[in-house]
Design a protein that fits this description.
rod-shaped; Jelly Rolls; single chain; about 400 residues; five-stranded antiparallel beta sheet; nine-stranded antiparallel beta sheet
Amino acid sequence: MNRKGVQSAIEVSILIFIIAGILVGYVILIPEDQRNELLDDDDDTSTDGTESTSTDSGTTLLSASPGEVEPRKSETMIYGLDPTKLYSKIETETQTLANSLTISRSLIHNDYKNIYFDIDRDSLDKLELLLLIVESKGKLKVEINDQEIYYDELTSNELPLEIPKAYLQDEDNILKLTSNSPGWRLFSSNYYTIQDVELIKDYLVEDTSKIKTFSVDEVSTLKSATLSYYITCNTPEEGRLTITLNEREVFDDDIFCEYLEKRELVLDDDYLRTTNTLIFEIDEGDYNLDEIEVALLSQGRDYPTYTFELDSDDYEDVSSGEKEVFLEVSFGDDSSHKEATIYVQEYSFNINTYSTDYEKEISSYVDNGANTIKIQPSVTFDIENFKVVLK
């Protein structure tokens, strides 16, 4: 019987030893936060921003789930606009009406000449008549559509003769050349021998205004907008350039042809819309506008910002030290790096951890009444729960 009692005691001891080993192994293998709770670990280092979990749930002043947060990065979108040409210039064209003719007049004979021609009056800037006089005597009368434009002895010093646009019509214009009468001299005549009767036509050729468009996805996030371009003068003439954005003038100045550098113009944010219209316009000259670009600098995403209320009684308790205010954060990833700056009112502190939880006392940062707290991440990470608790 004694031998049987000893054997039973040994078996019980072995069983207790095995159960104790299983319990120790379980405690070692479970997650740290559950092990601390099981062992009633009261090591709280929240005052210096390290991770801990409060045993007292307290009163929740704020609870939010921001989800993924990321640094706010500025982005620049470049809109390249097509090169354009702006011009307002005079182009000259010559039209030969006759190669050779003679005009004469005596007492009994009048040998005048009518020459017919058509002309584009709308785009005409100036019209002149050029005659090559080989030999002459007396006076010459020049008429356009029965309107006199010259009557006297015509010499090369007075040529070319300008023809007023008001005397012209688009079709069937009549140029009439007549010599004056010799008067009482019966056997004499006045005459003009002429070669190369020509019209010198100056046409105004212009394209003084061009419209360019660009779009802005989110005007509210726009930080700045800059218009840049190069301008090249094709003639020595320097005119004036005007630029409007959505019917508002943003530039108006003389064009300096010797300035060949890139020109930049900051656009007023208040003028911008989702769809924007730029108009480039000149008054005179001939220019090329190249490498026209609009650079849009966007602010990126806003930082998550929240508010919570602390009433007067609770604020007095916090001020006297009877209660404390804590920030408690639960992250969605237990292995990634979480780094951010937290702003409470005008104060700030940093979070830099790889843990799944974070707690910090923020009693000295809070004010009586409304409080604002903002998350400014330095890296991208996930926040499951973001709480402010009064304990």
